[in-house]
Amino acid sequence: MSVGAGLVCAAVAAWMTGRPNAAARRARLLCAGGGAAAGVGPPPWERAVARLRRLPAEWWSLALGVLIAVLGASVLPLLAGAVGVPALRRVRRAREVRLARDRRGEAVIALCGALAGEVRAGRQPGEALLRAAHDSGGLGAAHAAVMAAARFGGDVPGVLADAARQPGADGLSGLAACWRVAVDRGAGLAAGLDRLEAALRAEHDQRADLRAQLAGARSTAVLLAGLPVLGLLLGGALGARPLHVLLHTGAGSACLAVGGVLEGAGLWWALRIVREAEAA
Which parts of the chain span the membrane according to its record (predicted)? Predict the structure, then answer.
């Protein structure tokens, strides 16, 4: 034991003395302008971790399936992980669509406020819309059409009504109505835009508050769905070999199939209830 401890101490000492001096390394980084020009970068393992983090979330299902397949010496987890890739991809894309819709809704609210400010500053409606919508993302794919209609005296309300069909751009229909009433009938455009902005902002805040209240129910459903994994880990820690039972015995395979179906059905039902409450 004393010889082993001595060898360990000698190895640690050699490793510490063999490391480059921290001060010298900092000096080289400063002289090289940050270290990139001198070829001093993050270690390979950090670069590998960064690449893994950039992978889409659905590929972690396949990686987990490979890991469980190796631990359980069965191809079934690998097949399950491969099946989970398209399902998780749909979930990720749905989340991206929802985030894009929310960002466009916020951009429409900002566009209404900016347009009201331009009109209140004394500019004509067409010029005010050109200035307010120049850097706005609320118009989406209809940005060029709206700008052309405002610049050349086209049918601005009609183009705005068409642009309102985009996901998250429902507020543009109200903007089109305000434009039609104000420009065609001589009503106050700034006052109408202020009321429209207040209404859209109140609706957005209500939707965000509802989503925050439903986040607890969604998290609870996901947590309950992950409890069987905790049970497998506890069984493995106790030496019960749950993976062998589930993947290499008839009764275990039957329990795995029935449990997987019930687990998926329960998770789908709980998330459906949350989605319907959010949509309502």
Answer: 59-88, 221-240, 246-271
